[in-house]
Amino acid sequence: MIIMKFLGGLLVLISTSLIGFFYGNQYSNRLNNLVYMEQCIKMLETEIVYGAVPLPEAMLNVYKKGNKKVSFLFKEIRDHIIENKVEEVYYSFYDLRHILKNDLNFKQQDIEIILSLGRVLGTSNREDQGKNFQLILNQIIILEKEAKLERDKNEKMFKSLGVLVGLAIVIILI
């Protein structure tokens, strides 16, 4: 009987700790993915503004050179543009918003900035594109700072909370 109580308590403690770590890691993942997205957008800016590479080819180059945790989005967008012969790039970005939210842990404001990139991409000359890229990169840098503050505040709290809730449940059950 004591072994069953011990195993049950251990399972409760492990499961609540894992839940706490899962929620805590979402804050780190968001920050990391914002940094990777910033890098990918900088690569895309270089390809388009300075290299004058056509958009589908530029997207493929970003996919190849960027961190695969985020750069796969650019291949998806490229494929969507080519397969559906989309006139506006925004619709290709818009179709991937669920991936941004669910897989990359982006918040709605992060998604809106990335969608704004889709709105302005390919709609003006290279000089204006460069200005648009700089604006979006500045917004992403601000989001990175906010994400870092959020991570510092919440990550440790969720991890500790998971362990403490598990301990509390075990104590109550004993």
Write structural notes for this entry.
The N and C termini lie close together (12 Å). This protein has one domain. The protein is 86% helix and 0% strand. The chain has 174 residues and is an all-alpha fold.
Q: Helix- and strand-based class?
A: mainly alpha
Distance between the termini: 12 Å
The best one-word shape is elongated
Taken together, the total number of domains comes to 1
The radius of gyration over CA amounts to 21 Å
Give a short account of the largest sheet: none
Supply the number of helical segments. 7
Determine the strand fraction and express it as a percent band: under 5%
Residue share in helices?
over 70%
Average pLDDT taken over every residue: 88
Please trace the helix and strand order, writing H or E for each element.
HHHHHHH
Instruction: Kindly state the number of beta strands.
Output: 0
* Contiguous uncertain segments of 5+ residues: none
Layout: helices, strands, pairs:
Blueprint (H helix, E strand, L loop, with lengths): L1 H49 L4 H11 L2 H17 L5 H6 L1 H6 L5 H13 L5 H48 L1
